[in-house]
Amino acid sequence: MKLFAIGAAAGGFSALFGVGGGVVIVPLLIFWLGYGERRATATSLCAIVIIGALAAAGQGLYGNVDLGQAALLAGPAMIGVGAGVALQQRIPERVVSLMFAVLLCAVAIELIIP
Amino acid sequence: MAELLTALCACVGGAIGGLLGVGGGIVFVPALVIILGQSQLEASSTSLLAIVPVALVGTWRQYRNGNVEVRDGIAVGLLSLPGVAAGVLLANVLPQRALELGFAALILFVAFQLTRRALAPRSAAGADPGAPEQL
């Protein structure tokens, strides 16, 4: 039931604001399901694979997706994500929480600025 | 030059994604709009597609570290569909600006809760990081 609520909230917020579901999924996994930060962020990535694929397929039908530029982003980002995961294993979980709080503030600022 | 800068931003976005369990769209979308001159709609669509392989690699790396709850992740992913439908519906009914400000206030509150939780003393140093928290 909680998983359903988390999924629905992630989907709703990504459709409304164009933010990836992770911003919603990670805090909910931590506060509702008592996940530690590492498990929460890892499981969030797993969910994002599916959410991103569904959403991109939908947008692709409307012809909004630029394949070349998606590849230009994905290539370097796949290297970056490996580094990010490796770094995360070496820092305390509460530091991950604090960094996530900073990320949320950045997203909030992006939303507030018209 | 613009391509190189975009690739650099993408690399940073991926690192943030791996570190914090998000897709990286928060970096991808502004990069596409500002550097490559895409429209907001094109940028978020392109970003969504780019996020898929990135999250896949991130999931695989985290899986090797034993951190992924595969069943929960797949459940959340699939259960997002009704939420997406509701979100699209709401976006057409409610004023976008009020939604943005409301969501901004909500995540600032979550940021505060996360910070408070991270700074609170834990029962034993790192003993049970999975212990349920009261919100």
Compose a concise summary of this entry:
By secondary structure, chain A is mostly helical. Chain A is built from 5 helices and no strands. Chain B is built from 5 helices and no strands.
Report on this structure.
The complex is a heterodimer of chains A (114) and B (135). Chain A is mainly alpha-helical and 114 residues long. Chain A is 83% helix and 0% strand. In chain A, helix 1 packs antiparallel against helix 2 (22-33). Chain A is globular and about 40 Å long. Chain B is an all-alpha fold and 135 residues long. Chain B is built from five helices and no strands. Chain B has helices at residues 2-20, 25-34, 40-64, 70-93, 96-119. In chain B, helix 1 packs antiparallel against helix 2 and helix 2 (25-34) runs antiparallel to helix 3. The model of chain B is unreliable at 124-128 (pLDDT under 50). At the A-B interface, helix 1, helix 2, helix 3, helix 4 and helix 5 of A face helix 1, helix 2, helix 3, helix 4 and helix 5 of B.
Secondary-structure content class of chain B: mainly alpha
Question: Radius of gyration of chain A, rounded?
Answer: 15 Å
**Count of DSSP strands of chain B:** 0
Derived from helix and strand composition plus strand pairing, the structural class of chain A reads mainly alpha
Poorly predicted tracts of residues of chain A:
none
N-to-C CA distance of chain A: 36 Å
Helix content of chain B: over 70%
Order of helices and strands of chain A: HHHHH
Radius of gyration of chain B: 18 Å
- In DSSP terms (H or I, runs of 4 or more residues), the helix count of chain A works out at 5
